[in-house]
Amino acid sequence: MKLAIIGCGEVGRLYAAAAAAAFDVVLCDSFPSSQARECARQLDVELKETIGEWLGEVDRVWACVPGDVADSAAEAALPFLRADTVYVDLSTATTAGKKEMGQRMSARNVAYVDAAIMGAIALTGLQTPILLAGPRAETALADFATIQAPARALADGEPGDAMTLKLLRTVLTKGLEALGVECLIAAESQGVRDELYLVLDDINQAGFTQFLNAIVRTHVVHAERRSHEVHRAIAQLNDIGLPGTVLAGTSGRYEQTIRSLRENPAAPGTADHIDSAVAWLLESTLARNEN
């Protein structure tokens, strides 16, 4: 089985090293770094610098390029791909971009698989989970299993579905990252960072998903009371000369919920279950956005 890996950054080199024993690998990078050249040398595989007719000889393509060049890389590859090729797009391209490319490749009978890496390769390496979506996602799943990379195929998933979930994950994780920066530097400046970890231990004990559902459920009931605590936290950061930009946005979300509760109160029991709480929050947010 011949595998082309397009893009020899950190992700491409990781999967190339894992796949070299199971596949006939060829690398491609338009501007190969010294690390890319060393990777090719160590694996004893060819490193090409242009996409071309040689792609017609491969069975699989794993595109490991940055999201902003994913469309151009796929567009350049498409004329040379065989009808039975499976093209796995591991980039962080937009949901819309992956949907459109899936349609374009399908019209040429090339199987396009949307692949979203759900985590940080730098932290967990080959064990970073991959979510797959597309008509041939099961084929890609088997290929990643060959190199012992954990992957999961979305049932009835279409190109763009995996990226949709990744970007929703990003809303949470990158928001937490930014809040984490604001919180930890403030704790460090006040000499209480070690103690802060101790008072966060209840989150570890509950489990993150359970904790997330609990605070979103009860947000429907306690948004106004909690908003006062947010204002006090903002004042504390201001007092120590570390004003928080993310926390200011948090205050805005609370105010939006408070206004919605005043204008269209949630029905009794809405906060008893995460489904009803999210449904009310979604409906009220859309209603406010329309006004």
Q: Can you put this structure into words, describing what you see?
A:
This protein is of the alpha/beta class and 291 residues long. It folds into two domains: 2-159, 3-Layer(aba) Sandwich (Rossmann fold), CATH 3.40.50; 200-290, no CATH class. 57% of the residues lie in helices and 12% in strands. It is built from twelve helices and eight strands. It has helices at residues 10-19, 34-43, 70-77, 95-107, 121-124, 137-146, 161-189, 193-199, 201-206, 208-239, 245-263, 274-290; strands at 2-6, 24-28, 46-48, 60-63, 86-89, 111-117, 130-133, 151-153. The protein has an eight-stranded mixed beta sheet, sandwiched between helices. Strand 2, helix 2 and strand 3 (46-48) form a beta-alpha-beta unit. The termini are far apart. The mean pLDDT is 95.
Radius of gyration: 24 Å
Measure the end-to-end span. 56 Å
How many helix segments? Answer: 12
Order of helices and strands: EHEHEEHEHEHEHEHHHHHH
Query: Helix proportion of residues, in percent?
Result: 55-70%
Q: Roughly what is the average pLDDT, rounded to an integer? A: 95
Spatial shape: elongated
What is the H level of CATH, i.e. the homologous superfamily of the largest domain? NAD(P)-binding Rossmann-like Domain
CATH topology of the largest domain: Rossmann fold
Broad CATH class of the largest domain = Alpha Beta
Overall number of domains: 2
Largest sheet: 8 strands, mixed
Could you say which structural class the secondary elements and strand pairing correspond to?
Answer: alpha/beta
The share of residues in extended strands comes to 5-15%
Low-confidence stretches: none
**Strand arrangement across the biggest beta sheet:** 3-2-1-4-5-6-7-8
Q: Count the E strands.
A: 8
